[in-house]
Amino acid sequence: MNLSHTFKAFDELSVQELYHLLRLRSEVFVVEQNCVFLDQDNKDQKCHHLLLYADKQLAGYCRLVPAGLSYPEVAIGRVVSSPEFRGKGIGRKVMELGIEYGQKLYGPCDIRLGAQTYAMDFYKSLGFVSEGETYDEDGIEHIEMVKKA
What we know:
Mean pLDDT: 96
Largest sheet: 7 strands, mixed
Structural class: alpha+beta
CATH architecture: 3-Layer(aba) Sandwich
Number of domains: 1
Distance between the termini: 32 Å
Shape: globular
Low-confidence stretches: none
Radius of gyration: 14 Å
Helix content: 25-40%
Strand content: 35-45%
Order of helices and strands: EHEEEHEHEE
Number of helices: 3
């Protein structure tokens, strides 16, 4: 499997890249997870977007959210891997690249995310620590997690 990636501000995304990332997010978050919610939350335009390709097909994605937009800290959000590439390390690679680009873009900083609780061990393996109580977001249990600089 040949992996490549791109990391761009919203205004740098091509129409095709934007379509593919929105389609992947809808495929997983809306259809697969059966969550009826408005994915386009007016934050994308202020974020940077990481698209991970496997053999030229979008296999994974996340967005880097600047501090103050979702949380006081920089955040990684909308972490998703394509169902057809699961079990191949795509999610880990997306997160590793997201963390790396977060540090390059914003300097040494804490990074926060809202994790689905079933994925807590995955995020812990990347250095994130849970904070606070679990909460319901669109019918799925979440918890905030932070990776210290």
